[in-house]
């Protein structure tokens, strides 16, 4: 199928401009109750091990061959693209459609960060959008910066996350054979992407010391890539302006945007979650604007669209964005 024009607005939207796939946010609760979840012992041990490994890997960065240093940077950004473009914009929000080769590539790149499966990530993210800033939000920002960034991974899920998660429509995920294959065989896939490849490539092709490849290419890349993505849950829900909707804690955070290649325009994203560009000014095909920040994921999607690998890219009409800003924004961004 030939790709649609990059400005296509073929969307599923409500009158308020929300994506009509179980993403319409429910009213947020004012009071935050104590978290009843128990500590996740296995998760604590897992993260402790990898953070120690990452610290050693950071030290070993200074001893890497130049080829290995470039490899570490490249592999890190592959993981960032896999998260932002793959599980987030494609599978969680269906912001665009992708051909089979691109879907396989994105799922492979996502596994570099060694998180939960793409299916589970997309499910939890849909819960986050529908119940944002409530007890049913997996990383409720009202519980503080540390909790929303990393603390939630050290606890078992809040009961409300599990209960409300049962109300989310996941039919499109279950009906995707590539995604479900990835889900069923994720243990093997991430073993290959997180351990085998980052260690084998530098040691075999340019003779890097295996220990440096293990600590820096494996441990450091995994931890740093993960923490960059976590800033969207933490920094982008605590710091920045809210020109599109003040009812969300989500804000426009430039630091998070830089660390994640374009995921930091979070207030816009919660207002228009189906937009493939993740921001009003993020497309490099739009006229220049000083507010626009570099967005690697958007550029990646647009490049894939030009190559025929991505299509049906979705964006809301500009008039809808302006109406939303005037109705619910904080007035911090003036756009003609």
From TrEMBL:
Membrane topology per record: Multi-pass membrane protein
Domain Fatty acid desaturase: 67-274
Entry GO CC: endoplasmic reticulum membrane
Subcellular location: Membrane
Named cofactor requirement(s): Fe(2+)
Keyword annotations: Fatty acid biosynthesis, Fatty acid metabolism, Iron, Lipid biosynthesis, Lipid metabolism, Membrane, Oxidoreductase, Transmembrane, Transmembrane helix
Predominant subcellular localization, coarse grouping: membrane
GO MF annotation: an example: iron ion binding
Biological processes, Gene Ontology terms: unsaturated fatty acid biosynthetic process
Pfam families registered for this protein in UniProt: FA_desaturase
Transmembrane segments: 44-62, 69-88, 100-121, 188-205
Family stated for the protein in its record: Belongs to the fatty acid desaturase type 1 family.
Domain notes: The histidine box domains are involved in binding the catalytic metal ions.
Entry protein name: Fatty acid desaturase domain-containing protein
Organism name: Trichoplax adhaerens (Trichoplax reptans)
